[in-house]
Each structure stands twice: as structure tokens, then as C-alpha cells.
Amino acid sequence: GDISLDQFTNKAICEHFSDAEEAIHFLKSVGLNSTPTWIRSIDTLSMGEQYRAKLALTFSKPRDLYLIDEFTSVLDRVTARSICFSIKVFQTRKWCLRHLMKMLQSG
User: Fold this and answer.
1) Using CA atoms, how far apart are residues 98 and 92, in angstroms rounded to an integer?
2) What is the pLDDT along the chain (107 residues), one digit of tens a residue?
3) If we measure between CA atoms, which residue out of 68, 98, 100 comes closest to residue 84?
4) Residue of 98, 73, 90 whose CA lies nearest to 31
5) Considering Cα of 7, then 69, then 49, then 93, what sign does the dihedral take?
6) Measured between alpha carbons, how far is 28 from 6 in angstroms, rounded to an integer?
7) What single DSSP character describes residue 9?
8) What is the C-alpha to C-alpha distance for residues 74 and 38, in angstroms, rounded to an integer?
9) 54-63, long-range: CB < 8 A, 24+ apart
10) Cβ contact 71:81 at 8 Å
């Protein structure tokens, strides 16, 4: 399902993930690289930062398919390009791991 701002409480963004390692991995993968940003609540972030936090939380939930509609509409061009690259890397790794697991299970 869609990740809405209502799902974020007033606690730090990083606290919405299962552990610190997962939070760091997914927040960095969408371009939220600043530790001070990770400890802020979502309502204190810019629209672009809020959207990236939502993307990070979305990617942290295992799914076979992610539908992301018009995600560049709230981002500047540089950030949008960076996130496009991150999504590509994320999906490539996920695809490779899934197929590796299938090969190991069948072998």
C-alpha cells in the first residue's frame, strides 16, 4: 500500500525502520545522507525530503513490485536523477539476489 504521512508519528525518521542499519541503508539509497535529517520528525522536512523518506520506507518493505507514480514532481532535477539511479541500483540488487536464491535452492 501507499505510504502516507499519517503513518509517520512525531518520532525521528530513523525510528520507523527495524534497526539502525536498515534505516541508514534505505535513507542513503534515496539521497537522505545527513544524520541530522534522520533524527528529525517528518513534519519538519521539506516536501522533497518527506517524499524521499516515504520512498525509503516503501523500499524497506519487501515487495515483488513497487509502483511509484510521478515521484519527480516534488524533487529538483539533480535529486530526481540521483534517486532514479538509486532506484535502478536497488532494483538490480534485488533482482540479482532473488535469482541467486532461486539458483541456490534449485541446486
Assistant:
1) 10
2) 555 666 667 789 999 999 999 999 889 888 888 889 999 998 898 888 888 888 888 888 877 777 776 766 777 888 778 777 777 776 666 655 555 555 556 65
3) 68
4) 90
5) positive
6) 22
7) -
8) 19
9) 54/3, 54/4, 54/5, 55/30, 55/83, 56/26, 56/27, 56/29, 56/30, 56/32, 57/3, 57/7, 57/16, 57/17, 57/26, 58/3, 59/26, 59/29, 59/30, 59/90, 60/17, 60/18, 60/22, 60/26
10) no
Q: Which residue has the cell 524497506?
A: 60
> 77-106 vs 47-59: helix axis angle to the nearest 10?
0
The residue among 18, 85, 17 whose CA lies nearest residue 54 is 17
- What pLDDT does residue 17 have? 92
